Amino acid sequence: RVQEEFLELLELLVSRARTYVSSLAAMEEFHLSLSQCVVLRYHWIEPFIRSLREHLASFHSFFCVADQVKVYTNQNKTRTFIGLEVSAGHFQLLELVSEVDRVLEEFDLPTFYKDPSFHISLAWCVGDLSGRLEGQCLRELQDIVDGFEDSALLLRVQWEQIRCKSGNKYFSFPLR
Questions:
Q1: Helix (H) or strand (E) holding 14
Q2: Distance of CA 3 to the CA centre of its chain
Q3: Rounded-to-integer distance, Cα 65 and Cα 63, Å
Q4: What PANTHER family does the annotation carry (predicted)?
Q5: Domain boundaries, the chain
């Protein structure tokens, strides 16, 4: 769920970043990944979700803070992203990934990255334009985040549930 003030911050960041890369597009939905995208066979969906529910059942709600601007590219360097990296809550996210990875291994699916950079993507563009966005642009974007009124509260995320998307269906796993 996104607050109006977060969208104001997003607009400031994207507007500034577009002076470096005009083709940047703001994200319309926001998430923090705990796995790579994987393909589930149709008959795996129900047992996969059941296993995920069991593995995540003991987790409690927690907070994380995503306030460090960072530039990312996808694995094959066909897309570049500006994101907010998690600066607090990393340990809890690693614990969640460990359980998600166990479920993925049950189905012989690829697990998450060895040393993940947990982040929320804010904007993207086609191609590897990381060189244009790093350096001066990145410093300016971080200054915007650091100086934005109420950014400390805005960028504090309470984890109350984990969601899994399969096709056009969403499955929710509440945290205790």
A1: helix 4-17
A2: 17
A3: 7
A4: U6 SNRNA PHOSPHODIESTERASE 1
A5: 1-174
- The continuous run of DSSP H or E covering 6 comes out as helix 4-17
pLDDT at 167: 87
Q: Which two tokens stand for residue 170?
A: 């969403």
Residue 65 and residue 87 in contact, taking contact as beta carbons nearer than 8 Å: yes
Distant-in-sequence, close-in-space partners of 38: CB < 8 Å, separation ≥ 6: 104, 109, 110
Which residue do the tokens 């923090």 mark?
Answer: 32
Catalytic residues: 31, 119
Q: Is the pLDDT of residue 1 over 80?
A: no
What is the band of 154 on the pLDDT scale with cuts at 50, 70, 90? confident
Burial track 30-59 (b if 16+ CB lie within 10 A, e otherwise): bebbbbeeeebeeebeeebbebbbebbeeb
